Amino acid sequence: MYLRDQYESDMPAPAISVLEMDSVEAANAALAELPIMKAGFLDPEDYPLRPLRHWEVPFHDDEKTT
User: What string of pLDDT tens digits covers the 66 residues of the chain?
Assistant: First the structure.
């Protein structure tokens, strides 16, 4: 499991962990092995993310040669 970032929040979910995994299923399987999960102290929610589309557009240089 690769834990990319962790954040604290005032939202209903007070802790946010960003995992870099191949799939939501792989992330859930890895989290299920954590002692804190086995003890029933966490109730995770999944929010799959993907790269922002068209991120390169504002930075595109029309005059750049390849």
Answer: 678 888 898 877 788 888 888 888 998 899 899 898 999 988 888 888 777 777 767 666 666 555
AA identity, residue 36: I
Nearest CA-CA partner of 5 in 17, 20, 13: 17
CA atoms within 13 Å, Cβ hemisphere of 22: 3
Long-range contacts from 25-30, C-beta under 8 angstroms, 24+ separation: 27/1, 30/1
DSSP secondary structure code for residue 51 in this structure:
P
